[in-house]
TrEMBL record:
Region (Disordered): 29-53
Protein name: YusW family protein
Keyword presence, Signal: yes
Bias (Acidic residues): 40-52
Alphabetized UniProt keyword annotations: Signal
Pfam families reported for this sequence: YusW
Transmembrane domains' residue ranges: none
Signal sequence interval, chain numbering: 1-22
Superkingdom, taxonomy of origin: Bacteria
């Protein structure tokens, strides 16, 4: 009977040692080894939580270039939602803006919300909304919008004069 008690106690001790050893140190420090450039990312406050609700758009990426006769890329917008952050760049020569990161997104928030783009819209509807939302003057020579919808489909809308 003592032999059985000894083997049970030994088994319990071995199991406990393995369990404690497998848990490891909870204060481990992890390093970003992916070398991703996150300098322009707008960080969420907590994983899976986004108080600013930046993912309310039906697109995950929106790029816009507007040229005028005397100024190429007078308006240049790059907006991209990612799983854990949002990248934004906004340059508008007529409004004297050249921003990146959170500042760019704050300046883009109103025009992007005004767009209310839907995947089933025609190119003409999209173009009309882009002109209105970004206050594009009628003397433009090129408007080019590249949209990546939430489902991954891409659409390019171009207008030349």
């Amino acid at each position: 009977m003592t032999f059985k008690k000894t083997s049970v106690v030994a088994s319990l001790m071995l199991s406990t040692a393995l369990l404690v050893g497998a848990c490891g140190d909870k204060d481990e420090i992890t390093k970003d080894v992916t070398k991703n450039d996150t300098s322009n990312d707008i960080e969420d406050s907590a994983p899976g939580e986004n108080p600013d609700d930046v993912s309310k758009f039906e697109f995950s990426k929106f790029e816009l270039e507007v040229n005028y006769p005397d100024q190429e890329e007078a308006i240049d917008v790059n907006y991209e939602e990612k799983q854990d952050a949002t990248d934004a760049e906004y340059r508008n020569v007529t409004e004297n803006l050249d921003e990146t990161g959170e500042t760019a997104f704050e300046n883009l928030r109103a025009p992007l919300e005004t767009l209310q783009l839907k995947e089933d819209m025609t190119d003409e509807e999209i173009l009309s909304r882009v002109v209105k939302a970004f206050n594009i003057e009628d003397n433009y020579t090129l408007i080019e919008a590249d949209i990546t919808w939430a489902n991954g489909e891409e659409q390019k809308v171009t207008a030349k004069k």
